[in-house]
Structure formats: C-alpha cells, structure tokens
Design goal:
Helix content: over 70%
Number of strands: 0
Radius of gyration: 19 Å
Number of helices: 12
Oligomer: single chain
C-alpha cells in the first residue's frame, strides 16, 4: 500500500461520525467508564502502597490498556480493542507476580527470551499466596479466567475471523452497535475477572493500607458469597 493510497483511503473514514454514534449511548459509555474507574482505584492504591517497586510499570500499563480500549471502541476499531482488553488483564496479573520477583523482572527487562505465562502466575499464587487456592475455588475465579481468556485469545489470534472485524477495507471502518455491545460485554467481563484476581492476591495482602473510600468502592456490588470468601471489610 503506497503512502498516497493509504492517505486517500484513511481520509475516507469518518472518525467523527463513529465517535458521535458511540457517545450517543450514555449507557455504553458509562459501562466503560465504570470499569476504567475501578482499574484507576486499584492503580492509585497500589502506586501509593508499593512505592518504588519497578513492577508497578505493569500497573501503569494495565491502566493505559483500559484507556486504549475506550478510545478504540469510540472510533469503531473493535478488533484492535480485543488486544488491549487482554493486555489489561495480563499486565495486572504480571504485577502480582513480578512485584516479589524482581530478579526475574530484571531478566525480563533485558530481553533474551525470558517469559512468564498466565498459568505460571496462577500456579505461583496457588503455592505461595495465602488462601488463594481456596478463595479462587469458592468464587469460581479460575474457571471464569480460563473461559474468558480462551475466548478473547481466539479473537486476538484471528481464530474466529469476522466476529469483531466486519469491514474489508479501511474506508469501511464504521460504528457497529452489535459488535460494540459484544466488545463492551467482553471488556466488562475482563475487568471483573481482573478485579477478583487482584482482590484474591495483592488486595488481601495490602488491604489494611487501602483507604476506606477505596475499600468501599472495590467491594461495592460484590455478592455476599464473594465478600465472605475474600474475608475483606470496608472499614
């Protein structure tokens, strides 16, 4: 694709119309904002408590991924948003591991093929995080995590083509309500899974240092069963 051709085709996309249609549904916007707000609360608390830990770079990436999801969905770029949705979950999970594995983090930063999988992070918490295995079982966390991660990965890797990507040319990028609804549903499910994972790991570890307001917001809307399993209070 030549530069001239790309520019001509790119300018055929009406980004303003896409975003105007997106913002015409306050309910959709509110759902995305609510997810990103809870992620922001996590980021603020962890940044304040775990001061100086280089693994906080994953928390910043987690929050930025959520921002990118919102921007991409507003523009009608649904397939690219899938990658940012998955990144938000992964980076949050990586923080819970690398915050106490700084030698491995240094190796990761240097490059050279070192890599930690999602499964390895989960296994670490099963072995070393107090009550994680029991809590995860009680609230169905790992079952939901595997189900959600498998579904989003199939979209990211193109194993189910056409589901989040309805256009065949650049100029065809446009607002599509059914695809937006699916993307928002997936994003909210991701954020909820991430939320429960953080509550079950670093949340329980640092809970006494969280602000009262943050505790109330993070526990809001959780079922009694989940609150009982987590053994966390809002005071």
């Amino acid at each position: 694709m030549s530069k001239k051709f790309f520019e001509v085709e790119f300018r055929k996309i009406d980004w303003k119309v896409n975003s105007d249609k997106f913002f015409s549904s306050p309910y959709d916007v509110d759902r995305i904002e609510a997810c990103n707000l809870r992620v922001a609360i996590w980021a603020r608390q962890l940044e304040a408590i775990d001061v100086g830990n280089p693994a906080l770079s994953f928390i910043r990436e987690m929050q930025m991924s959520g921002h990118q999801v919102a921007a991409l969905l507003a523009l009608g770029l649904y397939k690219p948003a899938a990658a940012s949705i998955r990144s938000m979950l992964e980076t949050g999970m990586y923080y819970t591991y690398f915050r106490s594995h700084q030698i491995e983090l240094e190796t990761l930063a240097r490059g050279g093929g070192y890599y930690i999988t999602k499964s390895e992070v989960v296994e670490f918490h099963k072995q070393h995080t107090v009550k994680f295995k029991d809590i995860a079982s009680q609230i169905g966390l790992l079952t939901e995590l595997e189900k959600w991660y498998g579904a989003i990965s199939s979209i990211v890797h193109g194993q189910i083509p056409g589901v989040w990507n309805k256009f065949h040319a650049l100029k065809d990028i446009t607002f599509d309500k059914p695809t937006l609804d699916l993307a928002i549903k997936t994003f909210c499910a991701c954020e909820n899974t991430l939320h429960l994972f953080l509550l079950s790991t670093v949340g329980r570890q640092f809970w006494d240092s969280f602000s009262v307001d943050a505790k109330k917001r993070l526990l809001a809307h959780l079922s009694l069963k989940i609150k009982t399993s987590l053994e966390l209070d809002a005071a």
